[in-house]
Structures are given as structure tokens and as C-alpha cells.
Amino acid sequence: MDTTELLKVIEPDGATPGFDTDLSDAELVHCYRTMLAVRAFDDVCMKLQRAGRIGFSIPNKGIEATQVGAASAIDKTDFLFPSYRDFGMALYHRVPPVEMMHNMFGNELDSAHGRQMPVHFSFVDPIRLYSISSPIGTHIPHAVGAAHAFRLKGEDRVCLVSFGDGGTSSLGFHSGLNFAGVWKAPVVFLCQNNGWAISCPSEEQTASEGYAIKAKAYGMPGIVVDGNDLLAVRQATSDAVARARRGEGPTLIEARTFRMGGHSTSDDPTRYVPAELLEEWGRKDPVTRFQRYLEKEGIWTAKLEEQLTAEVSAEINAAAKVAEGTGQPGLETIFSDVYADLPTHLRKQGEFLFDLTARRGDAAAGDGAFPL
Amino acid sequence: MTASLQILAQDGKPVRSVPELAPERMVELFEHMLHVRCVDQRMLKLQRAGRIGFVGTAKGLEASIIGSAAVLDHRDWLWSGLREGGAAVMRGLPLAEYVAQMYCNSNDTAKGRQMCNHFQHKGSNYPSWSSVIGTQIPHGVGAAFATKRRGEDAVHGIYFGDGATSSNGFHSGMNFAAVWKVPAVFVCVDNGWAISVSSSAQTCAESYADKAVAYGMPGVSVDGNDVLACYEATRSAAERARAGDGPTLVVLKTYRMLGHSSSDDPTRYRDDEEVESWAKRDPILRLERYLTDRGVLQKGAREATEKRLYAEIDAVVHEQEAAPRMALRTLVEDVYAETPRHLREQYNAFHAVVERRGEAEPGDGAFPL
Amino acid sequence: MPTLTLLQAVNDGLKSVMRTDPDVLVFGEDVGLKGGVFLATEGLTNEFGKERCFDTPLSEDGIIGTAIGMAMNGLRPVAEIQFQDFIFPAFDQIVSEAAKLRYRSGGQYTAPMVIRTPYGGGIRGGLYHSQSGEAYFAHTAGLKVVIPSTPHDAKGLLIASIQDPDPVLFMEPKALYRSVKGEVPEDVYTVDLSTLRRVREGKDVTIFCYGAMVPVVEKAATQAAAKGIECTVVDLRTLLPLDEDGVLEAAKSTGRVVVVHEAPRFCGYGAEISALIAERCIEYMEAPVKRVTGFDTPFPNTLEHHYLPDDRRVLDAIEQTFEF
Fold first, then answer.
1. Judged by CB atoms within 8 Å, which residues 81-140 of A form the interface with C?
2. A119 Cβ partners below 8 Å, 6+ apart?
3. Does A259 participate in catalysis according to the annotation?
4. Helix, strand or coil, per DSSP, at residue B235
5. Alpha-carbon distance A275 to B135, whole Å?
6. CATH for C197-320 (3.40.50.920, 3.30.430.20, 3.40.50.11260, 3.30.450.20)
């Protein structure tokens, strides 16, 4: 267990001395394409939000290598418990961008029926991506429970749970990691140390030497990895996943990266993030770094980049267009899914709302009859 | 970090240099430890006789509790869990108040609102514990923050058991304490069992002291049945805190010889051999041997002290048995600084019923509205 | 007298009291340089330093737990919980510790502190940035629960809460943060807790409400007046301890009652008002009490405007009190 040495694979110039990847060229291109897609998805959402067409988004810029590197290390039969800043995890596993856009618009095709804020995805296909909740760290024990269930059922599947540096202070982190250690649950904890919990820098978050070292309190290995190095994140996560599948228990990975944008579209980071830090991390851009690697490997060409950029841009813009053109969720979705069966008091409340809305001449209520 | 600090071996022979404590002070510690045991003994008896409802004993933990708390002086605060009542008595809680609290009677400073074994003593900065595990940890940290902010040099000893290291309060309290560098000493009395869950099943960490690393503070493991080691480790942590160098986690490895409480039957979940092996490490006997070897304690001193202590305790018990009935108004008082109208009304309605039944006493009267 | 938004009034209240009482300190997540996610604490760190307005690690349990200890040891903490939806990790510390400390220690230890938290819908915050959890807390003896609806009350009630000897949960209607403005005195002043505010006088129907529902009810009352129905509108302001006599008096004065809140109906605060009236002045009632509330569902996002009670739902209820 080494909690201090930073795992790094790709040098700033793209060289990977002494390292051979297990990824095929096509898989490497898919990683690269996913990072470009994250950036495009991010850009489109920021523009939609600025134009007032969606209410909110979470900038993902700077974190792409961590998201994609980690996601690439799990199978689609595994269970993903992401944070709200993990576009790349969904996109890597080929969740169609339009499905994500439906959530950004909260429309009737959104898997959560417009009940959640944007960026709070929930998917079961093509990968199980657990419904995201806004309170911090609550999903960590969920992932541990799910992983323990895999173990009890004798399945060799694992859970990958992702959270930020601030998440380590949450109660879910403490109980989740402790239970996982005691149960030897097949779970990988990915702490994306992006430098900031909204406006709170790491030195105000904890007095410990980084976050990986916290693993010691729970009797599990803690690994520090360069979060802007896709291959390093993939390597660390693959090792942890393999360990989990072998029944040797959980691992905490701290990926050191930097949130290049604000916490959200409602945040102005210039109030608290020093400009020098942004410049410093701007020079460590994870997409450029991976691109240099691909170039050294003879995979990247300007033409490839141009082609992929055009592809993802077209795909995501089209997705936004479709999602924006999709109608609002039906009024009855206020009442459905509260329980498996609709209780009488909710039926009455639904009937009341449909009647009232119809009397107002609002087409959302149709003929005024409650459809459930 | 995982090797435990030990000063006295079980035969009473020092294995490293002994802290500079006057012989009289050591005898005091010995008597406080005996006192803890005698009080427990009497309380258990009262519980078995149905005179009091509940006892959470400290048998086996006397060195941990007395040795660590002995370094906290009158300025300092002690944030307790279930089993630190003996430390409160050592630091000034009158035994009469201790026993009144066990009876939850009208002499109880908490007015009989808490269950038994939840002591408090304002005079020595000893707030009462709620029964919810670990909740006192952030309280101690917040209070230590206030101490630091006012530039005072008090230290906050924050006590909890091995099970509490899994609690919310431990995680947030330890984290906040280290970030704020408050003058606190976290005393984890690892007594082997969180009710029926063994301390080895509570966590997968190699040692409880290792948990300090996660918060960026030092952690030390101590032989919790060695009163001098407990004293020394806590003293050095308190000194560090007082000097402004921040908190420390001190883990006292010991063993709860009896059940979790008088309501618990530990034979259901643990082996006799384990209990016997710890019985051979009795903390009181260890200090007694050391003091006897040094000629500080004379033969028969222990028996004489016990006799004296039991007599004192019995006198106090006798007195507390005769406490008057609890004033009924305490039902609604102290909910707020001033009793609000709705509570006064609720009490008055209740009082009318009591009066009709002829059960009201002078002083129970209705509130003015 | 300056005209401030409710948000500015909260900010002004904090600053005013911090200038006069050095024991008051403000902390929570992002309340420092960022000034809070809604900017309620903007400028505090600059004016009072990091010693008195600072960010904490991301743990609501830690924020409230340490605030209790600070309060027990002579400080006056004003802790912020970023969204009321995030308060639940601290539920134990609020309900079982802060609220019970005085009682369980026989008055020896107390936790005079304020927990400020924005609550309620109207910002497209979905399930976790919209909840109205006042009923969970109003059920807690030892706690005070205060909800302002005007800038003047926001400052005066906040200062009264900070000066109060007991723990106060101060819930700020985030929907009103920037949408209501009013004159706010510059000095330190208080509005007494446990007093209600009669917003509007009318002889026909009494409407009880608080927080973000007050302007909605006022709008409905104006529409009712146009139809010849005169409403008394009561802003409860302090939910616990409630000014019960004030409620009964207002209910009796018209004999018709509507209660409005955006929280779900079942075991919601309106149930307490209805029960109080049923127990204490049913003989004055001309019609059953009507409740206008959020639905008994989690809070939606896209359809929040259908979830939240609006003036037309309130008006319907007013009219229904005449249909009995």
C-alpha cells in the first residue's frame, strides 16, 4: 500500500516510457472520442443554460481523463454510482447523448420524468448508472451495499463509486468505507480530488495529507493517481477492479485533477479560485495530454481529431435539438412512482390537480380525467 | 504506531521509565480506581434489587478512565460517553449527585430526565452525554474551538468507545478538529466490545490509532490497563493541545469485564476464555503490585480503603433513597429558557387531573397563563 | 430607510449583529469568500475576517455538532445549512442534541444558536433543492422554528433568533430572496418570536400562511376582494412556539379558515392549525377548514409550478369555504 507516490503514465509530451497499454487502437480512439464528447456536451449545455433554455448544468472541463479512464476499467455488467460531474462515465459506456439531453431538459422522455434537476442521470441500459442524488456522499454506502449483494450472490461484478474531495467529509464516506472494509465488498472508491468543494479548497476540507491516506482508517489500500492522465487512472482503476473481483476487498483511489470551470452554472469561481492555479492546470489539459500520447503512438492525426470533433458535435447538437423539441412530462408524473401502487390520497390529489388544470384551460390536463 | 505504550507490566514491574508522579498522587489514582469499582459494585447490587433501573459499569476500564482523566485539571472539559462517571467523581462531582443521578430522583441535577448512568457536573466542565453514540464528539470540538478563539488554555478531553469510531460524530468531529487545530484530546476507550460487536469486527483498520492518519493528526495506542501509560499518553497529548499544536487521538486498549449494561448478558456473544485472559490483566491489581513493591502501599491497605469507600457509598445511597418526589412541573420546564404558553397550558390540564385524583403536592400548582 | 431584498436583509441582519456582538460567528459550506450559494453571507469574511465567517468541511453533522459545542462554551454560532434539503445528516444533532440539551441537563447546559437554511421551491431545484421540511422540526420540543416573509421581518426575526436563549431553526424562503423588497431599518432591532403578523384585515375568511406562500396568499386575497370576499391574511412567522391565541382570535373573527403551505399536506403544519381550531373554537366556524398545500409526493422539477400552491388554488379554497 503506497499512499504517497503519484501514479503517472503519460508524460507531458505524450511519451509513456516502459508502459504498454492493454487497449486496442479502436478502444484508445473510443476513449479519445469520449473525452471530446464530454467537452462538446459540456459546451452545448453551458450555452443552453446561458440562453435560458435549460436551468442548470455542471461544468466537466478538466476532469475528462479521470471520468473516462475510470469508466474504461469496468465492464458494462458492473454497477456505476457516479457523482453529478461524470458526463464521461455515461458517454464512455455509450449512453446515447440524447438520453442525457432528455434529463438536461427534464422532458417526458427523461428517465426520471423531469423530477430531478439537470445532470442527475439515471440509466439501466447500456450500463447500470445509479440515479444521482444532490446530497453529497449519500450514494457511497449504496454502492457498498450493492457490491456486498454481488458478493453474497456469488457474482464477480463490482461497483465503481465516484465522488469529490468534499465527499470525503460526508457521513456516507465514513460509513461506506468502513462497511466496505469490514465486509470486503467488491467496490472501488474513486475520489475525484478536483481541488474544490464548490468554494472550499482542500486545506479547509481536511488536515490529512491528501485523500488516499484516509484509506488507512478503513484498512484498505489507498492509491494516488494523476487524474489528468487517462492511462494512469485506467491502470489504477483496473488494478482495483481486479482486486475487488478476486474477493480481496475495496480500494480507495484519489485522482488528482482540477475543476476548470465553476461548480455549476450558478457559481462564479473567480470569487475564490486564484487565476494562477487555473493557468497552471490549464497547461495540464487532460485531453491534450492524451492526444499527444495518441500522436506518439501514430494514432492521432489532425484529420482524426477533426472528424471526431465534427461527429460528436453533430451528435450532441442533434440530441439537444431533439430533447428541446420533446414535450413536458405528463401531469400524472407528479403522482406516479411515489409508491409502487398509487394510494388513495394521492389519487384524490391527482384528480384534484387534473380537474383544476383543465378548468383553467391548460392542455396539460387533457380532458381533465386523471389517467392513473 | 500500532505498538501499544506500556509502562507497567502486569506483575507491577516497570518496563520503561515511570512518569514523575509523587507517591501520594499515585495512591490517589489507586483509590480513585478502587472507588470506581466499589461504586459499580454497589450500583449493580441496587439494580439487582430493583432500586435503580440501569447500570453501565466500568469494571476493567478503571485505569483507562482514571489515568487519562487525571491529566485534565479544573480548567479543562471532559466530554463523556457512558462509562466516565468515575472520572467525574475524581474531578469533583459529589458522590451524592452521582447516586442521585442513578436514582433519577429530585436531587439529580438533570431532574431525572435522563436515564441512569448519564452524569453531568457543571463545576468541572463535564456535560452529560446523550445516549446517541458519538454525538458528543463534535460538541467537544466546537467547545474547544470556542476555547481557542478566546485565547484560553483549557483542553477538551473527548471520550468515546471503539464502536463510536464508526459514528458520524467521530468522522465530522475528528475532521473539523484537525482542520481547526483545536485544543482537544480524543480518548478512544477501546474496551473490546460495542455491546455485542467485538472491536475487531467494527473496522478493518489495523488499529484504531491508525484512524488518526485520515484526519491528519497523531494517533497513539496505549495499554489501557496500565494506569501510568494512560496517564503519560494523555498528558503528552494534552500538553500538545495546550501548546496550540492541535488534537491527538489516544486509543486506550482495555476490556469491558461485564456486560454492556445491567440489561445485557455477555455470555451470549463472547467466550469465557477471553474474559479470563483479561481478568489476569486487572488494572487495579497492576498498580497495587507496583505501589506495594515500592513500599508505598502497606499490606492490607486495599481492604481498608475498600471498607471505607463502601461505608461512604452506603451512607450516600441511604440518603438518596429518602429523596422527595420529583416536582411535576419539571415535566415541562427547561424545554425553553421560558416555559411557553402552550406548555404551561398542557401542564395545567395535566395538573387538574392530578389534583382531581388527590395526588397533587404543594409546589405542583398550575402555571399562571 | 434603505429598501432591501429579503436576501439583503438577512445579510444586513448578520452584519448588524456581528458588529455589536463579537461572540457571533457565521460558518457553513461556502459562506466565506464565495458569500454563500445565494450570497446571504456576502462580504462577511471581508468585514469580520476568517475567524468569524468561515467555510467548514462538507459535513452538516459536523457543522451543527460543533455549533452546539461552541454555544455550550459561550459563543453565538449562526450555522448555515446550504439547502434545507441537506439538513438531514444533521437531523440527529438538531433534534436529539440541540433541542434537548437544556431539558436533559436540567438547565445547566444550553445551546443558544441559529441554524439558517434556505427552503422551498420555485427555483427549479428538483427533489433536493426545494423541500419544505418545517413539519419535521416543528414537531421537536426545545427547538424554535422561524420563517420570515418580508425583508423587515427577516432582519428583525433573525436578530431576535440570534439573541434568543434557545436554538432556533431559521428557514429562509429562497423563492422570496430577491423577489420581495421593503424598507429595513439600519440599526439593530428585533421582531418578537412567537408573534404573528396580520398582513391584511377582512371580515369573511382568514388565511394562515408563512414564508414563500405569503405573497401568493396576498395575491389571492386581492382577487377575492374583487369578488367581494374580504380576507384576513395571517403570516405565522414563528411556527414553534406558535402564537396560538393569535391564531384563534384570527380564526374566530371570520369563522372561515384556509391554511396554505407548500410542504406536503399529510401531517403538515396545516394539520396542527386545523386541529387547534377544531379543538378550541369549532363553535365559531361556519365551514370546515380548507388546506391548500403541496402534494404528498416528492418535489418535482419540470412540473414544480403545478406542484406549488398558487393564487388560483388559494382563491378556489377561499370560495369553497362559502360552499358549505
1. 106-107, 110, 113-117, 120, 133-137
2. A56, A57, A58, A84, A85, A87, A103, A104, A132
3. yes
4. helix
5. 40
6. 3.40.50.920
A92 is catalytic: no
pLDDT given at position A1: 42
Q: Where are the beta strands (DSSP E) in C152-279?
A: 168-173, 181-183, 197-200, 205-209, 231-235, 238-240, 257-264
pLDDT, tens digit (0-9, with 9 covering 90-100), for C107-132: 999 999 999 999 999 998 999 999 99
Q: Is C230 in a helix, a strand, or coil?
A: coil
- C-beta separation of B140 from C71 below 8 A: no
Active site residues of B: 256, 260, 269
**Does the CB of B172 have a partner CB in chain C at under 8 Å?**
yes
Q: Are strands A128-129 and A79-81 parallel, antiparallel or unpaired?
A: parallel
AA identity, residue B234: T
Q: Give the one of C59, C69, C241 whose C-beta lies nearest to B175's C-beta.
A: C59
Residue B170: closest CA among chain C residues belongs to which residue? C62
Active site residue A272: yes
**Amino acid identity of B89?**
V
Q: What are the residue ranges in chain B where pLDDT is below 50? A: 1
Question: Which tens digits make up the pLDDT trace of C245-261?
Answer: 999 999 999 999 999 99
Please give, rounded to a whole number of angstroms, the shortest distance from the CA of A46 to a CA of chain C: 17
Q: Any idea which residue has 513493591 for its cell? A: B293
Fold of B23-321: Rossmann fold (3.40.50)
Residue A116, phi then psi, degrees to nearest 5: -100, 165
Q: How far apart are CA B99 and CA B43, in angstroms?
A: 8
CB C91 within 8 A of CB A171: no
Checking B268-273 for CB contacts under 8 A at 24+ apart, the result is: B268/B196, B269/B196, B270/B193, B270/B196, B270/B198
Nearest to A207 among B201, B203, B217 (CB): B217
Q: What is the DSSP string of C6-22?
A: HHHHHHHHHHHHHHH-T
As for how many domains chain A has, the answer is: 2
User: What CATH number is given for C3-183 in this structure?
Assistant: 3.40.50.970
Is A200 close to C266, i.e. CB distance below 8 A? no
| pLDDT values of chain C reduced to their tens digit, one per residue, 324 residues | 999 999 999 999 999 999 999 999 999 999 999 999 999 999 999 999 999 999 999 999 999 999 999 999 999 999 999 999 999 999 999 999 999 999 999 999 999 999 999 999 999 899 999 999 999 999 999 999 999 999 999 999 999 999 999 999 999 999 999 999 999 999 999 999 999 999 999 999 999 999 999 999 999 999 999 999 999 999 999 999 999 999 999 999 999 999 999 999 999 999 999 999 999 999 999 999 999 999 999 999 999 999 999 999 999 999 999 998
The answer to whether A206 faces chain B, any CB pair under 8 Å, is yes
Q: Which residues pair with A253 in a beta bridge?
A: A190, A223
Report strand pairing: A222-226 vs A251-256.
parallel
Q: Domain map of chain B by residue range?
A: 23-321, 327-369
Do residue A198 and residue C37 have CB atoms under 8 angstroms apart? yes
Residue-wise pLDDT for A216-244, tens only, equals 999 999 999 999 999 999 999 999 999 99
Domain that holds residue A126: 6-324
- ipTM for the assembly: 0.93
User: What is the rounded CA–CA span in Å between residue C137 and residue C100?
Assistant: 13
Average pLDDT for A122-139:
95
**Full strand arrangement of the beta sheet holding B219-223:** B77-79, B156-161, B184-190, B248-253, B219-223
| Cα–Cα distance, C220 to C316 (Å, whole number) | 9
Residues of C in contact with B175 (CB under 8 A): 57, 59, 62
